[in-house]
Amino acid sequence: MRRLLPLLAALALALLPSGDGADAARPVVADLSNHLVAITTGFSGTHVLAFGATDDRKGDIVMVVRGPRETHVVREKTRLAGIWMNRGGVTFAQVPSYYAVAATAPLSSVAPSEVRKRHQIGLESLALSATDGDGKGLSEAEAKRFRAALIRIKQKAGLYPEKAGTVTTLENRLFRAELFLPATVPTGSYSVEVYFLQDGAVVGAEITPLFVSKTGFSAEVFDFATRHAVKYALATIAFAVLAGWGVALVFRR
Asked: Which of 1, 35, 89, 209 has minimal Cβ neighbours within 10 Å of its Cβ?
């Protein structure tokens, strides 16, 4: 019963009239079971329940989770005289640090490619612009190669799930999805975008914020390292020297 409470609340919201007095309900309403994910020592990942409801129309639901934007440099290794070396890097700007999708059906059957590209639904539709070391654009072949490399790096880190998650529905009105955030998830402000599609067109959308933040001792250390980088570096070196000296003293005895 506890699992159904968020869905029942979403249905009640969907049935409420809009603020302008119109009789029609909103096409889709959505919310999260938790808007704050606290990263503490020993954090191994967590699930966040996304839920909601639609109006009387039948359609499909797509959820897109985007993490804080970042600049990412991808370097290509080349072999020179038997040694692997990094070549000039390619810079991707405004890259979602985390990106995941869940849907009620395969994305290709939910919406045509132009709709998916417009809303950046699915990895193949994610806009990733790249420039070389001189700030110039890349050829189509180079951009494609480095884009694939960036996605592989993110997938290896568990930040770009390869497969879309599943959105389950109940009575064609209520929907829910378990969103998994891995242990490697970056901190910052996230957005959970919920799209309601009918016949391949977006007829309603809702954006819900999600915050990932460090708490406890690890947060204090992170904050100190960010605000006082030099002092943190010196403290780290001093700790390493003392730890090494202590280990040597133990073994000498």
From this structure: 1
Give the integer Cα–Cα distance in Å for 107 and 121.
Answer: 8
State pLDDT tens for residues 10-59.
Answer: 555 554 454 454 445 689 999 999 999 998 888 899 999 999 999 878 89
Q: Give CA torsion, residues 106, 112, 117, 120, to 10 deg.
A: -30
The sign of the torsion formed by the CA atoms of 117, 120, 125, 129 equals positive
| pLDDT of 94 | 92
183-192 residue pLDDT tens: 999 999 999 9
CATH number among 2.30.110.10, 3.40.190.10, 2.60.40.1930, 1.10.1740.10, domain 5-214 = 2.60.40.1930
Strand partners, 79: 84
